Amino acid sequence: MTSTYADPRTQPFWDAAKEERLAAPRCTNCGTFRLPPSPYCFVCQHREVEWIELPGTGKIVSYTVIRHPLHPELAAACPYVSGVVDLDGTQGAGARMLVNIIDCDPDKVRIGDAVEIVWEHVNDDMTTPRFRPVRS
Ligand SMILES: [Zn+2]
After folding, report:
1. Residue 75 to residue 69: CA distance in whole angstroms
2. CA of 103 to the centre of ligand 1 (A)
3. For the whole model, what pTM was predicted?
4. How far is the CA of 45 from the centre of ligand 1 (A)?
5. DSSP SS3 for 11
6. Which of 74, 100, 127, 133 could bridge to 69 as Cys pair (CB 3.0-4.6 Å)?
């Protein structure tokens, strides 16, 4: 079934997400990950991709703490952390995700922190990734 939130280019990501698998498109010509999915490779302009399953772990490379809601309905969610995660298994080849970092103290999040994926079942049609700090 096609997700309300997907298009043909992103559908494989959402299909994998429903099964709690993180999949990313990789250029079949040069190996660059194209996440978010793009019609052409930004390195070699090749069109074709193969979908690679990733372990769902990574490190925070940038983040911000949102303390003021963009919409009144989001007031209860504040403060929360939005961050960019460099995904393990991609050798720094373009696979980063902008995600919410959950289950954390927003004042203790740091660049370089190890994080792992947590799947949130939004509804019957959509499961979306979040990340949380890896606890040792
Ligand atoms: Zn390429």
Report:
1. 5
2. 36
3. 0.87
4. 6
5. helix
6. 74
Rounded CA-CA distance 62/46 in Å is 29
105-117 pLDDT tens trace = 999 999 999 999 9
pLDDT in tens, 39-80: 999 999 999 999 999 999 999 999 999 999 989 998 998 999
Q: d(Cα 132, Cα 120) in Å, to the nearest integer?
A: 12
Distances (CA, A) of 58 to 5, 18, 75, 89, 96: 25, 20, 29, 9, 9
Between the CA of 49 and the centroid of ligand 1 the distance, in Å, is: 9
How many angstroms separate the CA atoms of 113 and 132, rounded? 10
CA 91 to chain CA centroid, Å, is 16
Residue 99: phi and psi, rounded to 5, are -140, 165
DSSP designation for 78: -
Q: Of 99, 19, 27, whose CA–CA distance to 57 is shortest? A: 99
**How many angstroms separate the alpha carbon of residue 48 from the centre of ligand 1?**
9
Distance 4 CA to ligand 1 centre (A): 29
